[in-house]
Amino acid sequence: MILWQNGPVMAGRCGRVNIVDEYTRECLKIHINRQVKAADVIYELSELFLERGAPDYLRSDNGSEFTAEMVRGWLERLGVKTLFIEPGSPWENGYIESFNGKLRDELLNGEIFDTIPEARVVTEAWRKQYNTIRPHSSLGYRAPAPETYSLRQVANA
Fold this sequence. Notes:
Layout (H helix, E strand, L loop, with lengths): L1 E5 L8 E6 L6 E7 L4 H15 L4 E4 L3 H4 L1 H10 L2 E4 L9 H13 L9 H17 L11 H13 L1
Parallel strand pairs: 4-5
Antiparallel strand pairs: 1-2, 2-3
């Protein structure tokens, strides 16, 4: 699982955290708010961990919301190892860099959001399309969500 803080989504200050599964390439969550704090990261991850189980490791940049003692301690108690990429080394995390480029090219460069709720609704619609319809060359030109669904069926059999 990959976490990534990224730049503004609208005029004014606004933060975004993308959560992407490295294996399936599925975008699990795009969290948008005025600020992204450690408590926001824990909340979003706890929702995903309840739904999907905790991953073996979590890769992220060195943003303060990811390196905060509260987040690191919580992940350690759950047995989730953290992998932080080196500052200024985006090539260490090619999956999220690719995802961020697609999000920018396919959505953010063509939109101007006036409010946080608007940004959330439009981004969530794009995320669903990205996961269920948009073909991914790394997955044999299939969308990631059907791959995830079939993997869950095998795991539950």
